[in-house]
Amino acid sequence: MLITIQKAGAAALAAEAHKLHSNGPKCQDLGWSCIPFAVETYGNWGKEAHHTFSRLASYLAIHQSSPKSAAVAEIYGRLNIALIRSIAGAILARDLLTAIRLCLRE
User: Fold this and answer.
1) SS3 letters for the chain?
2) CA distances (Å), 95 to each of 1, 10, 47, in order?
3) pLDDT, block means (10 residues), the chain with 106 residues
4) Residue 33: what pLDDT?
5) CB atoms within 10 A of CB 46
6) Are 26 and 40 in contact (CB under 8 A)?
7) Residue 42 vs residues 5, 76, 90: alpha-carbon distances, Å
8) pLDDT (0 to 100) of residue 37
9) pLDDT of residue 97
10) Which residue, of 14, 64, 85, 91, has the greatest Cβ tally within 10 A?
11) Which residues contact 72 (CB under 8 A, 6 or more apart)?
């Protein structure tokens, strides 16, 4: 935990390493590539995620005839919105359950 406090991105790198260690051999047995994705609480993406997003942005830029920088921004923007919606849904569901529990107590 101490290393994650000292360096931004350390938790994402550790999570990627763990995912690669846990899933890499299974993927290899199936003939797949294991691309571990990790994001930290404050939004730092792991190194593998950045690399993959950059490759995807290259393809997207060619397909859309747009600059790669615009494609990168679109990918991160869409992912951030998806994460925010998911987190909001989890918070609302938790608050709804809390409200129901409180009503049942009364």
Assistant:
1) CHHHHHCCCHHHHHHHHHHHHHHHHHHHHHCCCCCCCCECCCCCECHHHHHHHHHHHHHHHHHHCCCHHHHHHHHHHHHHHHHHHHHHHHHHHHHHHHHHHHHHHC
2) 29, 31, 34
3) 65 92 95 90 85 93 95 91 83 75 67
4) 92
5) 22
6) no
7) 12, 14, 17
8) 86
9) 73
10) 14
11) 53, 54, 57
Cα distances (angstroms) measured from residue 5 to each of 2, 12, 29, 45, 91: 5, 12, 36, 15, 25
pTM of the model: 0.66
Q: What angle do CA 1, 13, 83 make, to 5 degrees?
A: 95
Q: Are 44 and 76 in contact (CB under 8 A)?
A: no
What is the distance in angstroms between the CA of the first residue and the CA of the last residue of the chain? 41
- CA dihedral of residues 23, 24, 28, 30 (deg, nearest 10): 10
**What was the pLDDT predicted at 74?**
93
